[in-house]
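Batch queue: ligand-bound targets. Current item pairs a single chain with adenosine-5'-triphosphate. No template structures supplied; prediction is de novo from sequence plus SMILES. Inputs echoed for audit trail.
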Amino acid sequence: MVMIKADGLTKRFGNATAVDHLSFQVQKGEVFGLLGPNGAGKTTTVRMLCCLISKTEGNASVGGFDISEKEDVMKIRKMIGIVHDNVGLYESLSAYENLEFFGRMYEFPELKLHENIEKYMKMLDLWERKDAPVASFSKGMKQKVAVVRALVHEPEILFMDEPTANLDPEASKVIRDTILDLKKENRTIFLNTHNLDEAQRICDRIGVLNTRMIAVDTPENLEAAIGGRRTTFVLEELNSRIMDAVRARMPREVHALDNTLSVEMSDPDKETPEIVNAIVGAGGKIKSVKETSASLEEVYLKLVKE
Ligand SMILES: Nc1ncnc2c1ncn2[C@@H]1O[C@H](COP(=O)(O)OP(=O)(O)OP(=O)(O)O)[C@@H](O)[C@H]1O
Ligand SMILES: [Mg+2]
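Prediction returned. Tokens below.
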């Protein structure tokens, strides 16, 4: 079941195009990550999908409702939770009062709301400070309150714009685990992130965005298709004779750093032994050989640069 669907979704601010003809679908129960450099249009995309700003062109639906239909907007708002890129809490209210205030905007049973506030505040280690004004909170604590706020009305679809920015590793892990728990409940999560490691760990699929959508696939497929596989050879010593011998065998990309050679492979089973022969034939001594696939980071940098 498709929960989020964009079809040529576009946003222009004056003459500048922030988001250019995005088309993608997110299935129910999926964790979909949007990855892209600063200014790529991640926040703009989420704001359009959450009906906070209007689109310029194209279509999108959330939970089957059209983001540009007036009657649908309220329905979308009710079924989503949002962690904004800026926390936007009332500084003079306590954390608990903030959560109560925002939670009551949804037609959600009061008792359940209080139960959820307590559950998630405890989970994120905020409960002891529940009555303190948010103004006295650290950045990361405010961020955690913003995450709790997005969860307390048990939304079907969760939009999270860099939810772990400002968080320490432990708190980040709690958020990631929470996302995975929500996924188990078949909730749909749309996550903007800069954190490649995070995207790789929790996203079922990743969209690489740079104003336009450059690629959408599982982390594994992105690595395999775009990064390709490579073999790393650690030598006792690397010289130009060895380099020439390797390049003669392997017209593709060969990276050399200190005594390490990294070679892109299309068929490592066949090519790795060939390179070993070339190195040995040129008088090189091999200390180790290791096959790796490109990391998501390499894939990302390559995609975004192109
Ligand atoms: N209200 C606005 N008015 C004019 N331009 C805007 C507005 N909001 C965003 N932009 C522009 O749209 C582009 C995309 O911005 P956006 O905030 O969506 O990027 P992002 O991918 O979320 O970046 P970051 O990783 O820094 O959060 C940027 O060039 C930005 O300057
Ligand atoms: Mg942003």
